[in-house]
Design a protein that fits this description.
six-stranded antiparallel β-sheet, alpha+beta, SH3 type barrels, 8 strands
């Protein structure tokens, strides 16, 4: 149940519209009929956790949204602890946090947040929802909007597809990396990005749809 609520929230965040059963099935790696059955179940809870109409997608109710944010808060606090305290790399923490997020108590969550100093962002640069359901806002901009020649620090990669996140990570586009746009081709052409601050560093071309999902903070 919590995985479904979290997935609906993340798809709404990425797509800025209702999540579809097809997108949920792909994200959760389950069959579409199973997704439909679970959405019906969630919509019939008291109180309802989702608003679901066949062929029109699904959105979270306010109660469902708060429940999803609670799970996401657990997940991102655990990721931060694994990264900062136990020495996991930033690309290792997600899988471990997926296993642990459903098994911690509110008491543990409170102590974990206090121990970490109440962080606003996890190792990927994603905001950690607060206890009241509010979400920290960072003053970032998408990579393709960065001024040509101006260095910036990568804050997070928010593309919904794991294979895309893995690909940009293989190029060195990871949180805290320094990047610089060297050229933006017209008519939604590739965005050419230097990884690193010095001349002579590798330059890679990215489609606008990918570059638009990489959030950076100008240096």
């Amino acid at each position: 149940m919590e995985n479904y609520l979290k997935a609906v929230y993340e798809l709404e965040e990425f797509q800025e519209r209702a999540a579809t059963t097809t997108a949920l099935a792909e994200k959760l790696n389950v069959a579409s009929p199973s997704v439909t059955a679970m959405l019906k179940r969630l919509s019939q809870q008291e109180p309802a956790l989702v608003n679901y109409t066949s062929h029109r997608g699904v959105t979270l109710t306010e109660v469902g949204r708060l429940r999803a944010l609670k799970v996401i808060r657990y997940h991102r606090l655990i990721e931060t602890f694994l990264y900062e305290v136990l020495g996991y790399t930033w690309d290792e923490v997600h899988e471990e946090a997926e296993r642990l997020e459903h098994y911690i108590s509110e008491r543990f969550e409170d102590r974990l947040a206090r121990f970490l100093g109440y962080p606003d962002f996890d190792p990927h640069g994603s905001p950690i929802p607060r206890e009241d359901g509010s979400v920290p806002v960072s003053n970032t901009l998408p990579l393709h909007k960065l001024e040509v020649g101006r260095p910036a620090r990568v804050v997070r990669v928010v593309h919904e597809r794991q294979e895309v996140r893995d690909y940009v990570a293989s190029l060195g586009i990871v949180p805290d990396a320094t990047v610089q746009v060297t050229e933006v081709s017209p008519f939604e052409g590739p965005v050419y990005v230097r990884i690193g601050a010095r001349e002579g560093e590798a330059v890679h071309g990215l489609g606008v749809n990918v570059a638009g999902k990489i959030e950076v903070m100008p240096v």
